[in-house]
Design goal:
alpha+beta, Rossmann fold, Chorismate Mutase Domain, subunit A, 3 domains, 6-stranded mixed beta sheet, 5-stranded antiparallel beta sheet, 13 helices, 21 strands, 37% helix, Rossmann-like_a/b/a_fold
């Protein structure tokens, strides 16, 4: 075991190999025990000095442990005129290390208000993802000075303990692992090792462009900090580790408390919603800190990009302060939070896309003409299979139109009346559509996505929800089977 204090001096090849073994072998063995077939090591290989040193160490590990498969992946971003030269360098060096290499070409497009750095990073990781199987280990060459940069950027953005925890040495990454074996090694140590071993590496000219935040810190700020406080990268790493510990405690407690606030798809109160819901009853009695932690935990659970702190406070304020019947819609990025029946839902803009009524109308007409045996309608986020059948006592079918004009509509006036077959004996009369939506617990943003079947100007069915009892096919007659997705 290498003590961290010994890493303040120049590192040797045996020390580098030992670092890799300590970080990698336990995870590798864990994957083997779990039954993942042939887990492999995947190195994010830029050809810069950091990844060159890590590739050198990985070569030694592969030689000592030949049963472990290794792969270098170099991503060609196309952002530099030297990109093709870097590809050749990486192929040459990989051959020198006797390690397989894969070149991935990606296209980086900077969108409005997007960082080129962030776009390039996302493109890289998407490329790595294509090669990662469950249990595989992705290696990156982040080091101690990178950790200091990450911590300073988190301070600049005003992030909390999670952001200040910066990068973890070992962390779960999707179904694989992400390992940063050099996180306790300084940039100086890496450069000394490369010089000692005469490792050839590339120099990315963009690293001298201080218009990028990281380069500004690396070139101008961190050297001055180190001149005043030589051990600042080490102490900052210690602070990041302490923040990570505290964040883990918070995450564990949020994970313990969160389930009691969730409504998952399929629950009675979550009908016709694609997203998991968040209960608001009693939520206002919690402290402001726990409100923020739990709702942020809910958004993470749903897998959406988190809003800023200011946006989160606005969301919580509107959810808790607005009247029960208020139509709340708070947007950020590609998402928005809505509220219905005391439950908050996060939905993506894509989920709210309008459905092409003409396409559904055409399929329905083809079905009635016998040109289709059955057709599939989208009802919210679900699929409903429609076809012609013979009615039985246990299967409510919509009667055939008998030369009446049939139309499919998405959205109708709330005053239109219908008498669903699920209505109780106390409700012999037709009810307004707006009341039926409420009775079926359909959120307002889902209602325009439910196909409504009209015979002439009469609403006779809501696909997936009900058939008007006055338009049910008689037993033994042919009718239109509209499966009811709303279990009552």
């Amino acid at each position: 075991m290498i003590e961290k204090s010994s890493l303040t001096e120049q590192i040797s090849a045996p020390q580098l190999l030992s670092l890799l073994e300590q970080a990698i072998l336990p995870l590798y063995q864990m994957s083997v025990v779990k039954g993942e077939s042939s887990p492999k090591l995947v190195l994010a290989y830029s050809g810069g000095v950091d990844s060159e040193v890590l590739a050198c160490g990985l070569s030694a590990l592969a030689h000592k442990h030949p049963h472990i498969a290794c792969l270098l992946i170099h991503v060609h971003h196309g952002l530099s005129a030297n990109a093709d030269i870097w590809v050749q360098h990486c192929i040459t060096r990989a051959n020198h290390y006797q390690l397989p290499v894969q070149i991935e070409r990606v296209k980086v497009e900077k969108g409005p208000r997007q960082s080129l750095e962030a776009q390039a990073r996302d493109a890289r990781y998407q490329a790595f993802d294509r090669y990662l199987n469950p249990g595989d280990i992705l290696l990156t060459a982040h080091h101690q000075d990178d950790q200091l940069e990450t911590l300073l950027l988190a301070l600049k953005r005003g992030q909390g303990p999670k952001g200040l925890a910066a990068m973890g040495a070992i962390q779960a990454y999707k179904q694989a692992w992400l390992v940063r074996p050099l996180l306790d090694i300084s940039r100086d140590q890496i450069e000394q090792f490369a010089a000692q071993k005469q490792l050839s590496h590339i120099e990315d000219e963009s690293n001298q462009d201080d218009s990028f935040d990281r380069n500004f810190l690396r070139l101008d700020i961190i050297p001055r900090l180190k001149q005043r406080w030589p051990s600042i990268a080490t102490t900052a790493g210690r602070s990041a580790a302490l923040c990570a510990e505290q964040q883990q405690v918070i995450d564990d407690e949020v994970s313990h408390r969160l389930p009691e606030w969730l409504i998952v798809p399929g629950d009675t109160n979550a009908l016709m919603t694609e997203s998991t819901g968040f209960k608001l009853t009693g939520f206002g009695q919690l402290s402001a800190a726990w409100q923020a932690l739990l709702f942020r935990g809910y958004l993470i659970y749903c897998g959406v990009n988190l809003p800023s702190q200011a946006q989160l406070q606005q969301i919580l304020s509107q959810l808790l302060a607005a009247k029960d019947d208020a139509n709340i819609s708070i947007q950020w990025g590609d998402y928005q939070v809505k509220r219905f029946a005391g439950i908050a839902y996060v939905v993506s803009h894509k989920e709210l896309d309008a459905i092409d009524a003409s396409a559904v109308q055409q399929q329905f007409e083809q079905l009635l003409k016998g040109e289709l045996q059955q057709t599939v309608c989208r009802v919210g986020h679900k699929q409903c299979q429609i076809g012609l059948q013979i009615a039985t006592d246990n299967t409510p079918l919509l009667a055939l139109p008998n030369n009446t004009v049939v139309s499919i509509r998405f959205g109708a006036a709330g005053s239109i009346k219908c008498q669903p077959q699920f209505a109780t004996s106390q409700r012999q009369k037709a009810r307004e559509l707006k009341k039926l939506w409420q009775e079926c617990n359909i959120p307002p943003w889902r209602r325009p996505q439910i196909p409504l079947v009209f015979y002439g100007d009469t609403l006779v069915a809501a696909v997936g929800l009900w058939v008007d009892k006055r338009y049910l096919a008689q037993t033994g007659d042919q009718g239109i089977c509209i499966p009811l997705l709303n279990t009552r």
